[in-house]
Amino acid sequence: MRKLFRLFLPAIIAIILSGCGTGSVNRKIEKAVLPKLPELIGPAEHYSVKADSSISGLANNKVDSLKITGVNALVAGKYPVQDLNIYMDDVKIDPETRAIKRVKSTRIEAVISEQQLLDYLQKKHPAYRISDISIGADRITIIGKPEYLGVSANVEAFGKLQISGPAKIDFLASRVKVGGVPAPDLLVQQALRVLNPVLNLEDWKFPIQLNSVNLLPGKVILNAALNLENGVPENFGSELNSRN
Known about the structure:
Layout: H1 2-17, H2 22-33, H3 37-40, E1 44-52, H4 55-59, E2 62-75, E3 79-93, E4 100-113, H5 114-124, E5 130-136, E6 139-144, E7 147-148, E8 151-152, E9 155-165, E10 168-178, E11 181-182, H6 185-195, E12 199-200, E13 209-216, E14 219-225
Antiparallel strand pairs: 1-2, 2-3, 3-4, 4-14, 5-6, 6-9, 7-8, 9-10, 10-11, 10-12, 13-14
């Protein structure tokens, strides 16, 4: 997210200072931001940007809101996301340094489909040989055929997802079956050691703070935030290519 701000926010203030009307300013902001998103976030089937600026906001060197939407994005080149929405509200700019002074709130919502999570875990944990995932309301079932002590067997792990750190999500198993038979706790713990963390988002291009993970039929919904309301690091967002 630092790179995201750094690349386009100084251009925004340059546009504001040029004296354009709000509609024209918004379109220019959107045009400046859009081509940078594949590099900053990752490839996607489609990206869109929606900027909203008011006359009072422009007079105070402020962009009221920015919304970035991505469809079937591969965040950081490896995290498949069906729908990605990034909301930035009340972005205050220093007109002299072209640096960000304050962002009232930044919200991130990511929807991961059942098939996307399956594909991701199959690549991440080939030894677990995951064959299927089923996501329901506040529940998830993971089916695989791992090898343990030289023996492989069908394993069904039932549980839910929980936040285990600012950018990490773990699978919390309520029960595990091996060959259709309830497994002892030792095997449950072994299954968790293999799977966790299910998602580790620390290498996203922005410092993410996960707030919630919700399971709905066929999908996972992640909500996160980046709090810059009380200020930002020095020179944060000061190097936007203003030629766009």
